[in-house]
Amino acid sequence: MRILHTSDWHLGKNIEGFSRMDEQEAFLNDFIEIVREKNVDMVIIAGDVYDSANPPARAEKMFYDTLKKLSSNGERITLVIAGNHDNPDRLVAAGPLARDHGIIMLGTPKSVADTGDYGRHKVLDSGQGYVEVEIKGERAVILTVPYPSEKRLNEVLYDAMDEEEERVKTYSERIKSLFDSLSEKYRDDTINIAVSHLFAMGSEESGSERSIQLGGSFIVDGACFPEKAQYVALGHIH
């Protein structure tokens, strides 16, 4: 299975009043050509499709046009998760229509993809935080954790936090608990992947990402990610 991972397009971004959408459109056209030339089976977009929760109409059109071209009439699976800049509900609003084109869109850690046909491929199983896909006879289990804000993370873990000790865990420890639980879905006969939008320890900020960390509280240790994952597709730092 040939996978291409990307993230942080920030469509609609302005720098000091100057729109970057012409540059972004050129990038998207190049990206589509790369996907076609490399005969990619699955594209993973790991968050921050847009630069704001209320993107301009042109940015949304660019995104939807790109998804349609990437899909190639459902020949290719595209998985999209929300980042901290995206409005989760708005990002996935076209999900039911996108399904026919092989596009899976997930807004929050609690999002669940419908099972069934996605273009020419299938979602065999799904639940909060995971999806199992079949692409050309190969199966992949993908753990999906769209941008886990403190609130969203607590919503996912609340039922499991029976003891006070669990409730006072750090953000990084809770992310690890979530991935530890979800990784039980991995199997020896599947390609095992994890997708999220997080600030992983050791990442270097370039200055292009507006800081959302408070004293490092939202930085996670690399040990948080599942040992059995064969590939971890992250977004956020660029």
Task: Give the overall shape, derived from the CA principal axes.
Answer: globular
**pLDDT averaged over residues:** 88
Strand-residue proportion: 25-35%
Number of helices: 7
By CATH reckoning, the class would read Alpha Beta
Helical content stands at 25-40%
Number of strands: 14
Largest sheet: 6 strands, mixed
Key phrases:
single chain; 6-stranded mixed sheet; Purple Acid Phosphatase, chain A, domain 2; 238 residues; globular; 4-stranded parallel sheet; 7 helices; 27% helix; alpha/beta; 26% strand
In short:
The protein has 238 residues and is of the alpha/beta class.
Question: Care to describe what's here?
Answer:
The strands form four sheets. Strands 7-8-9-10-11-14 form a six-stranded mixed β-sheet, with no helix packed on it. A four-stranded parallel β-sheet has the order 1-4-5-6, with helices on one face. It starts with a strand and ends with a strand. The protein has 238 residues and is of the alpha/beta class. It contains seven helices and 14 strands. Helix content is 27%, strand content 26%. The protein has a single domain, classed as Metallo-dependent phosphatases (Purple Acid Phosphatase, chain A, domain 2).
